[in-house]
From TrEMBL:
UniProt organism field: Desulfolithobacter dissulfuricans
Membrane-crossing residue ranges in chain numbering: 12-30
Catalysed reaction equations from the record: ATP + protein L-histidine = ADP + protein N-phospho-L-histidine
Classification via PROSITE patterns: HIS_KIN
Sorted UniProt keywords: Coiled coil, Kinase, Membrane, Phosphoprotein, Transferase, Transmembrane, Transmembrane helix
Source lineage: Bacteria, Pseudomonadati, Thermodesulfobacteriota, Desulfobulbia, Desulfobulbales
One Gene Ontology MF term: phosphorelay sensor kinase activity
Listed name of the protein: histidine kinase
Length: 447
């Protein structure tokens, strides 16, 4: 009931506005009629004054019998004439206090600032005289008061009807909610149910499509969770076994130095496990399209230079020469830390897997910023190149190197999350080239 009353407030406001509009319109029509009648009589009196003069108008001035009384006042330098006529002359004003120039509708003669039943108009003639005519329009004023009272009573009696549209919309919304629940239930059980085809015409394709997208996203999240749990269970078995073995070995040691080494190995293995979990969660978020990106306009050249500075010492230690070629300086909207991690993974793989030379190229083609990382390392065989993006996959020749098998998976997921594209070109024993393409925002070109 409280909800119904709350929904009825807008209807009540509209109802009151309409009621006020009716009252104001009725008042305007009746006042216009009073001014029109008074204006016609004033124009006739001025014409009579011009034609017959003061004496003539004294004999011929009169008001229609429909009105209770009336007066005509003519003032000038040498003229002061007041004529009163009609059936009721007791309510005429005190002309000593009444201004000679006055244009009012429905005023009180005792107090011109208050509402009453008289309508007074004034006009100057070509002879310099001021002609003022007052008409007792109490019948029109009484009609207005009677109609206003009846309309207010009628409005009060009909006011409960404002609950009807509120009840109608509330009932309609409840029906829509029930229909939505039914559609969600049907879509969850059978997304291609024939019953849903009829709902397209009744509820619109947008509703059904929105429900389907919601369920598909839910299913994708559930699938990602299952795969993540399977991968975690599979890949954590080895490090957790090693961690347990080291811990048991440490418990048997009495030498502090060996015990310290065992604790250090435990710490290293735990860091490896935490890194694996963090990376797998990031991949799952990106692939499920739930990753939260802090997008901001950044120079892509600045991101690559930060990565080069990070790997400069590592490359020197392994005698790897890195060449950086910058053909453009595009600005892209990215999450800097996440995109820096993408390029860091690609460069780390190039250094790790036998390269002696790595060439990083930054250029712009149309509305794309393109970064290519080419190396002369061991390359990727044709049988493995399609699987390198799989989670936890490691090729035969890469198993001797330390790693989780998640670097390329994470790189691809993050690039796709940025609406970009990543691809690889490789030839066994000759090297690989990873190409990352990122879209340029329409309102940003260069720094």
């Amino acid at each position: 009931m409280t909800t119904l009353l709350r929904r009825s407030l807008p209807c009540l406001a509209v109802y009151l506005i309409l009621l006020l509009a009716v009252l104001l319109t009725m008042q305007y029509i009746l006042q216009t009629q009073a001014r029109t009648e008074t204006g016609k009589l004033l124009a006739h009196s001025i014409e009579l004054l011009d034609r017959t003069g003061i004496r003539g108008i004294q004999h011929h001035f009169t008001v229609p019998s429909a009105y209770g009384a009336g007066f005509l006042r003519v003032t000038g330098p040498d003229v002061q004439l007041i004529l009163v006529t009609g059936n009721d002359t007791e309510s005429v004003p005190d002309f000593n206090t009444l201004p000679p120039v006055l244009n009012k509708t429905w005023i009180s003669l005792d107090d011109p600032g208050q509402h009453g039943s008289w309508t007074i108009l004034s006009r100057k003639t070509a002879d310099g005289l001021t002609v003022q005519l007052g008409l007792d329009t109490r019948k029109l004023f009484a009609l207005y008061q009677m109609l206003r009272q009846r309309i207010l009573w009628l409005g009060l009696l009909l006011s409960p009807l404002v609950l009807v549209p509120a009840w109608y919309w509330q009932n309609k919304q409840q029906q829509q909610v029930r229909q939505l629940c039914r559609i969600i239930d049907q879509t969850a059980r059978n997304p291609q149910s024939p019953a849903l085809t009829n709902d397209f015409s009744q509820n619109g394709p947008e509703l059904v499509q929105a429900v389907r997208r919601l369920l598909e996203r839910h299913e994708r999240l559930a699938t990602e969770l299952r795969e993540s749990m399977d991968n975690v269970a599979h890949d954590l078995r080895t490090p957790m076994t090693r961690l347990r073995t080291i811990a048991e070995y440490g418990l048997q040691e009495e030498d502090p130095d060996r015990l310290r080494d065992a604790l250090a190995d435990c710490l290293e293995e735990s860091e490896r496990v935490l890194s694996m979990l963090h990376t797998m969660l990031s991949v799952a978020e990106a692939e499920a399209d739930t990753v939260q990106l802090n997008l901001q306009p950044v120079s892509l050249a600045k991101i690559l230079q930060d990565v080069l500075e990070l790997y400069e010492i590592i490359a020197e230690e392994q005698d790897v020469h890195i060449e950086y070629l910058q053909e453009a300086d595009p600005v892209v909207e990215i999450d800097p830390p996440r995109m820096q991690q993408v390029f860091a993974n690609l460069l780390d793989n190039a250094i790790k897997y036998g390269a002696t030379r790595v060439t990083i190229t930054l250029k712009q083609q149309g509305n794309l910023a393109i970064v290519s990382i080419a190396d002369n390392g061991m390359g990727i065989s044709s049988s493995e190149i399609e699987r390198i993006w799989e989670r936890l996959y490691r090729g035969d020749r890469s198993r001797s190197k330390q790693g989780l098998g998640l670097g390329l998976t994470l790189a691809q997921a993050m690039v796709i999350a940025h609406k970009g594209h990543i691809e690889v070109q490789s030839e066994l024993n000759k090297g690989s080239t990873f190409i990352v393409s990122l879209p340029l925002p329409s309102h940003i070109t260069h720094l």
